[in-house]
């Protein structure tokens, strides 16, 4: 009986420790806030938050309003405030809270082309190899490498392109090679023996890709930094459906070739040209909340810096009418009416911050609703940028989701 009680108590203790460790681990090391935006950190019993810049006497209160007062006070003098997370009076974590001033941006709505280059090469498939003896081989078997993994090194040499990988494999002359690859954010190593084919080349049976290209919509431009936000969602590999880990990329101008209208159950799309177009900027970040970079040719994109607007905080956004900016005819940006149906104020886990519906008859006539290529289209309400279009509901293409503009500006602010 005592043993059972002991085991039960031990299990409860371990579960409690796990809950606390998980809760503390999930608190980010760095948080970005707008000035006067409230700090929102979920705490459980025994946890408290203290501003490290204030005196111990003030810290004795350890309440959120005290923290907020400290943030507001220090935001007038410096950009970063350090916050301590205490567990039963012992500090277990320190967070940097970066406070940014109100920012004006230029909403765009321009269609752009994008070329992304990966860190290493992305594995998108596998296939059997016919050797020079006409036997079938699967050299990739039991190596641990899977679709969606990224190969970064072969025998210690950096792999930056598919050509690099082909050369390294051929140079092996069939000898075992060591491959460094990334799987689920973990760096791993394995060995593989290339197979000689009847064309005197060596292969390992992995299909890889080092670039991706497509069209989308630019959301906004920060004239003070030259940085640009696009898409409102990340670019995924078409085969693996994984977010592409990029090294860099290029932004190009593009022209609309045709528009395929959406229908219930069928996604429409804007078809544009990327190859052979003029480079107008660089891409440095591909995230689930958008693609980010820098523009060095504002004239080519037709950016008018005199048309800057404020970024709306979440509590300023209202259900009801708003406008969507996008360019469908000869690069000319038009505003179309949409209805904000739902607002998910506390959603920071994905880019579905708002549910909206296209109500503009002209836009419905042109596109049938929301179509591929419109992602990133800025959404305006009461003269402020409230978000960017991200997703369409395939079964009803007049409806879709948008991401908050405050999330996108915070992502942009993290660029070095």
Summarize the structure.
This protein has 416 residues and is an alpha+beta fold.
> How is the CATH topology of the largest domain named?
Thrombin, subunit H
Mean pLDDT: 83
- Identify the CATH class of the largest domain: Mainly Beta
| Arrangement of strands in the largest sheet | 6-15-16-21-20-17
Counting H and I runs of at least 4 residues, what is the number of helices? Answer: 7
The radius of gyration is: 26 Å
Oligomer: single chain
Beginning-to-end CA distance, first to last residue: 61 Å
Count the E strands.
28
By secondary-structure content and strand pairing, the structural class works out as: alpha+beta
Tell me what you see in this structure.
The protein has helices at residues 2-26, 56-59, 64-75, 162-171, 298-301, 361-367, 405-413, and strands at 30-34, 47-51, 80-87, 90-100, 104-107, 111-126, 129-130, 136-137, 150-154, 157-158, 177-183, 186-192, 195-196, 202-203, 206-222, 227-230, 246-252, 256-260, 269-272, 279-287, 290-295, 309-310, 320-329, 332-343, 354-358, 378-381, 384-392, 399-404. The chain is α+β, with helices and mostly antiparallel strands. The chain folds into three domains: 2-100, no CATH class; 128-204, Roll (Pdz3 Domain); 217-413, Beta Barrel (Thrombin, subunit H), CATH 2.40.10.10. It has a six-stranded antiparallel barrel. A six-stranded antiparallel β-barrel has the order 23-24-25-28-27-26. A hairpin with a 2-residue loop joins strand 23 (320-329) and strand 24 (332-343). The N and C termini lie far apart (61 Å).
């Amino acid at each position: 009986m005592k043993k059972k009680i002991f085991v039960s108590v031990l299990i409860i203790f371990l579960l409690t420790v796990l809950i606390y460790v998980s809760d503390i681990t999930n608190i980010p090391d760095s948080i970005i806030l707008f000035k006067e935006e409230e700090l929102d950190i979920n705490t459980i019993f025994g946890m408290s938050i203290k501003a490290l810049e204030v005196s111990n006497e003030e810290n004795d209160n350890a309440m959120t309003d005290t923290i907020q007062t400290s943030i507001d006070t220090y935001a007038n003098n410096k950009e970063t405030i350090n916050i301590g997370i205490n567990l039963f009076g012992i500090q277990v974590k320190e967070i940097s809270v970066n406070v940014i001033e109100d920012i004006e941006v230029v909403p765009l709505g321009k269609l752009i082309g994008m070329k992304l280059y990966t860190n290493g090469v992305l594995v998108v498939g596998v296939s059997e190899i016919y050797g020079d003896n006409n036997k079938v081989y699967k050299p990739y078997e039991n190596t641990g490498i899977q679709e969606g993994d990224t190969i970064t090194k072969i025998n210690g040499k950096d792999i930056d392109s598919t050509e690099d990988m082909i050369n390294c494999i051929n140079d092996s002359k069939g000898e075992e090679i060591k491959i460094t690859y990334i799987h689920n954010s973990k760096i791993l190593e394995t060995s593989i023996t290339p197979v000689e084919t009847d064309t005197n080349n060596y292969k390992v049976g992995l299909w890889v890709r080092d670039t991706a290209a497509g069209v989308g919509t630019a959301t906004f431009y920060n004239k003070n930094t030259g940085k640009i936000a696009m898409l409102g969602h990340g670019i995924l590999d078409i085969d693996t459906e994984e977010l592409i880990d990029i090294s860099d990329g290029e932004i190009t101008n593009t022209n609309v070739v045709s528009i395929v209208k959406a229908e219930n159950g069928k996604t429409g799309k804007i078809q544009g040209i990327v190859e052979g177009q003029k480079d107008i900027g660089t891409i440095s970040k591909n995230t689930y909340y958008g693609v980010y970079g820098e523009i060095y040719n504002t004239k080519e994109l037709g950016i008018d810096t005199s048309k800057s607007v404020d970024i709306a905080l979440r509590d300023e956004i209202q259900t009801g009418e708003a406008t969507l900016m996008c360019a469908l005819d000869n690069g000319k940006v038009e505003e179309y009416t949409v209805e904000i149906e739902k607002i998910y104020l506390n959603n920071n886990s994905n880019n579905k911050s708002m549910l909206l519906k296209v109500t503009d008859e002209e836009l419905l006539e042109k596109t049938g609703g929301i179509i591929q290529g419109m992602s990133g289209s800025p959404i305006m309400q009461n003269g402020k940028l409230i978000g960017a279009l991200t997703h369409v509901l395939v079964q009803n293409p007049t409806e879709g989701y948008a991401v908050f503009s405050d999330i996108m500006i915070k992502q942009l602010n993290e660029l070095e």
